[in-house]
Amino acid sequence: MASVPAPAATGGQGELHSIQAARGIAAMLVAAFHLSITIGTDRFAGVPVFASVTWWGYRGVDFFFVLSGFIILLAHRRDIGRPDRLGRYAWKRASRIYPAYWLYTAVVLAISAAGSGTLLASIATGGDFLSTLTLVRFGDVDPAIGVAWTLFHEIVFYTAFAALIINRRLGIALFAIWGVTILWSALEPTPHSLAGTLIGSYNMNFFFGLAAYGAFRRLSASAGLAALAASPVLLGVMIALEAGGVGGMLLHAGYAAAFALAIFGAARAEANGLRMSFPGLSLVGDASYSIYLTHVTMQTYLALIAAKLGLFTMLPGWAAYIGILVAGTLVGIMAYLLVEKPLLRLLRPRPAKIPHTVGRAALS
């Protein structure tokens, strides 16, 4: 999840609530996908509850990568070709990813150390420890927080975008080479390898996000509404194709296109005055980074508690599933309110104001 902190999308009317709500939905899709797998193991219910519905929820990662491309260009478009702004850009990106990630990782490792200690031992070597700490791959390590593999891709993207800030032509050339290499390699997602992190097909999502922002800047409101209408149709086609066994680069591109259409369409419509408000989902969207980093651990421990209490035999599978999903999400929201949000305030007491583009902080 790749749910990654970045500025909230805004237009002339203020924050784009539809984008925040979509982030909330994507975070819940990923959480629902993982919970079906967790509950399906023998030590819990033994049946993958709702798996026939949630199996494609992992595509929320693709959505977050597309959204990251959109938002980073929205927030830093005016920094392109301005090397004097590189330090500010690097600090903003680092301060939003690392502090909360380090703290949550420390908690997970502390829990592991109090138990079997196997997780701590798995990253004890120099290269694996550095990879876990920096989110830069020095090997095929699984980070202590397993879902944090998505953050390695984000760091690659942020580094490539830094080239645009240093020199516009250099950055364009780098992105062109990167994009061609991704297409040429046609490398299926191998998120825990160095090659997969650098040129795997997941990175293609960032390009679709950049294109979505270009459309947002240049196309009309009517084009945005058309894109918003086309997005669920294309998404449905992709889900049906994947369910039928279709895979490969074209499938990944289809999902990315569907998400890019949705982001462009929602942003363009709302920026042109379409009023949208989703308070609950917006809060989940704000908390999506903390939810993403904590949900697998919390779901596992909540499932263990449910098993010890005999809830998997006392309750229908769907009831236990919903209870764990809601409780795990609430823990993620509390982590955001009590940990991540105060950290952001501490590190960025006076955020720089970028005219017409950046609202309050939120997420990719």
Give an overview in words.
With 364 residues, this protein is mainly α. It has helices spanning 17-39, 51-54, 60-76, 86-114, 118-122, 126-134, 149-166, 168-185, 194-199, 204-218, 221-243, 249-271, 279-286, 288-308, 311-314, 317-347; strands at 7-11, 14-15, 358-361. The chain has 16 helices and three strands. The model is unreliable at 5-13 and 351-364 (pLDDT under 50).
- Shape type: globular
Helix percent band: 55-70%
Mean pLDDT: 86
What strand order characterises the main sheet? 2-1-3
What percent strand? under 5%
- H/E series, N to C? EEHHHHHHHHHHHHHHHHE
Q: What structural class do you assign from the helix and strand content?
A: mainly alpha
* Whole-angstrom Rg: 20 Å
Number of helices: 16
Considering the chains and any ligands shown, give keywords for the structure:
mainly alpha, 70% helix, three-stranded antiparallel beta sheet, globular, single chain, 16 helices, 364 residues, 3 strands, disordered C terminus
Quick structural summary:
The protein has 364 residues and is mainly α. It contains 16 helices and three strands. Strands 2-1-3 form a three-stranded antiparallel β-sheet.
Topology record:
Layout (H helix, E strand, L loop, with lengths): L6 E5 L2 E2 L1 H23 L11 H4 L5 H17 L9 H29 L3 H5 L3 H9 L14 H18 L1 H18 L8 H6 L4 H15 L2 H23 L5 H23 L7 H8 L1 H21 L2 H4 L2 H31 L10 E4 L3
Antiparallel strand pairs: 1-2, 1-3
Helix pairs in contact: 1-3, 1-12, 1-13, 1-14, 1-16, 3-7, 3-10, 3-12, 4-7, 4-14, 4-16, 7-8, 10-12, 11-12, 14-16
